[in-house]
Amino acid sequence: MGKVPVPDSMPQTEGRRAEALAGDFLQRQGLALVEKNWHSRFGELDLVLLEGETIVFVEVRLRTNSRFGSPGESIHGRKRSRLLAAARQYLARHPRAICRFDAVLLRSLDPPDFEWIRDAITE
User: Fold this and answer.
1) Are the C-beta atoms of 40 and 84 separated by less than 8 Å?
2) Has residue 26 been placed in a domain?
3) Average of pLDDT values for 39-53?
4) Is 2 among the domain residues?
5) What share of the chain is helix, strand, coil (3-state, %, to 5)?
């Protein structure tokens, strides 16, 4: 049985480029990059950064076509649950008192069109 294409999927190179652009953008805003593409059995954390003492988990979403909704709309309930589970596993190995979930939404790579949403995902 063949793979069924997901409407909002981007080629891996575009996704990695979006993550790199988002990481650079956040570092220019004063955050310090700790991890990129951290994997657990629950899923992947795109970016893990520090802002002061706060660990910041960042989901990067790229959608250049709004036909299937905005980039933010693609962070649905199941995706949020997987991100929270992956973050719990990360925090079990790297304890921090304070953490938050942000999202960087991109509608274009060239030129980069960013929207940074702090506290985008809450438990």
Assistant:
1) no
2) yes
3) 93
4) no
5) 35, 35, 30
Q: Is residue 3 part of a domain?
A: no
What confidence tier does 1 reach under pLDDT thresholds 50, 70, 90?
very low
Question: Residue 104 sits in which domain range?
Answer: 12-117
| Domain count along the chain | 1
CA 11 – CA 31 distance, rounded (Å): 27
Which H helix or E strand runs over 27? helix 12-28
pLDDT of residue 33: 97
How big is the chain, counted in residues?
123
| CATH number of the domain bearing residue 32 | 3.40.1350.10
Residues facing 106 on adjacent strands: 62, 114
Q: Report if pTM > 0.90.
A: no
Q: For residue 30, is it within any domain?
A: yes
Contact assessment for residue 8 and residue 68, using Cβ atoms and an 8 Å cutoff: yes
Q: Pull the structure tokens for residue 28.
A: 């220019």
